[in-house]
Amino acid sequence: xxxxxxxxxxxxxxxxxxxxxxxxxxxxxxxxxxxxxxxxxxxxxxxxxxxxxxxxxxxxxxxxxxxxxxxxxxxxxxxxxxxxxxxxxxxxxxxxxxxxxxxxxxxxxxxxxxxxxxxxxxxxxxxxxxxxxxxxxxxxxxxxxxxxxxxxxxxxxxxxxxxxxxxxxxxxxxxxxxxxxxxxxxxxxxxxxxxxxxxxxxxxxxxxxxxxxxxxxxxxxxxxxxxxxxxxxxxxxxxxxxxxxxxxxxxxxxxxxxxxxxxxxxxxxxxxxxxxxxxxxxxxxxxxxxxxxxxxxxxxxxxxx
Length: 305
Fold this sequence. Notes:
By secondary structure, the chain is mainly alpha-helical.
């Protein structure tokens, strides 16, 4: 969810980075497919399929960025941040699916002893792919962290996985070019690429599943919230802290105990201070709901007087 962190300028920058990635991926798909067919190289062709999946996920991320930036409405009282998380899940699943296809094709090539002898175009395209995808990774990961966008972070790792896969392809193609008997290196490189991508894709998918199922971000965050709450003047104790992620931002419910004899206005002021303390000390916070509970002991003492 892009909320406060996504000013129009930042959101526009995020879209520009994603559009740049889309344009580069179109170029890479064409170059890799051509080089893989003419060179020829199964590993480079497999890498072309990977770049094609990058192209598709760029479109998904653009949709996710636009959808998540919409304000809350009558049908979505908590905003549209989960749509951006859904886009991240789509990217992760696309990675796993493409990697599985690449792996099956590579294993089939090894079993069938398919011989390929790549030439220099395959090597040149692979080097260009490594450089361009690493640049895209750095630009996208930077924008994703600023916006706390799961879809952009996932897409950044999609770029990085493409760079990793191209490194494996470079080794396989280089080996196959150096010696005729090393032609299997091209097939092995394609298999290694697929395994790397499966790992990255599953990690991305698991993070989005945790977010969509409201899994707690961990005890460290909870302890930090307790620390922020307890240092606010007027808070006697805190309990029932509940935290979840939505669109990359923390949403939380916090119960604070205050003197039962203070006014409603004073209790409301303490709740505002609790919220301010959390926003000031913890990054990536979205909604904070503070419940004010009276200290029953102080209330009972007052009644006995």
